[in-house]
Amino acid sequence: MMTPLRFIPFLRPMPWGGERLARVLHKPVHPNERVGESWEISDHRLHESVVADGPWQGRTLRDLMEQEREAILGAPSKRYHRFPWLVKFLDANDWLSVQVHPNDQQAAKLAPTEGGKTEAWFVLQAEAGSRIYAGLKKGVDEKKLRQALSSGSVVECLHSFEPKAGDCVFLPAGTVHAVGRGILIAELQQTSDATFRLFDWNRHDAAGKPRPLHIEESLACIDWSRMEVKPVRVPGFSTERQQLANKPVHQPLVDCDYFRIEYRALSEPCDLGGAGKMQVVQVVAGSGKLGESTMDIGQTWLLPAAMSPERCVPDATLGLLVATLP
Ligand SMILES: [Zn+2]
Contact at 8 Å (CB) between 194 and 116? Predict the structure, then answer.
């Protein structure tokens, strides 16, 4: 009964969103709508993902986590009541706020209905001149950051770099970060919506009001040792070209307490899933077949721990992000 699962994407219009989720990742976006996020897999109370097709079509991930937790998660199921990850695609057409997330202990105090939030980004596309802010510049401490907050020069305290397609950025809870402008990313994070806004680029909403900031909560969560975060790069990655056609690639990207992520480029048929381990697979380049189903860029698959391995046949090259539980 256990088969690979796909869910109906939950598309969220955002002032900073764009058209890449429709154009590049083939999401069903209404024309003229600027969508910032596609929630691909969510067991967060803001949205419970619904199975898109197959034998479990119409059931929610919440329901499956109640009824089939061990079949889905495998041995780690005892540790999780909710599905451990929120999996998204994100189109940062404009700047997202400068923000920080709490760890599990800080969240228990500062955002009691949420858990901690460690996250990782994989850059699918980045326009020239776009930037990622991640971590503090060397020598920045709480006193310097407070001064910068009062003079409106926060970004001068933050490390930044120009991202390229194929960059993976690991953002443990406590890492100050921001992303913009013209960046399409795949995002995997702990199931949590605990976000503290440190700076919002002096912007105002449609009613002329600034969005609320959470300065003290942010400062309480910042990991002051987290400086100059650098990406792990997948050389030659592109959503458009099929560059890796003649050699298989298995590149580890992130290994932390909450998830392991690796990049795989497949050019020959192989088996995916099975062996008692749950996998979440995001298709970030190319197309192919998974069993009888079509695999295409922009899809996210949950391969339950209890399923048998499924044959995956790439059309040319398939670029996959594969996440597993430690
Ligand atoms: Zn974040």
Answer: yes
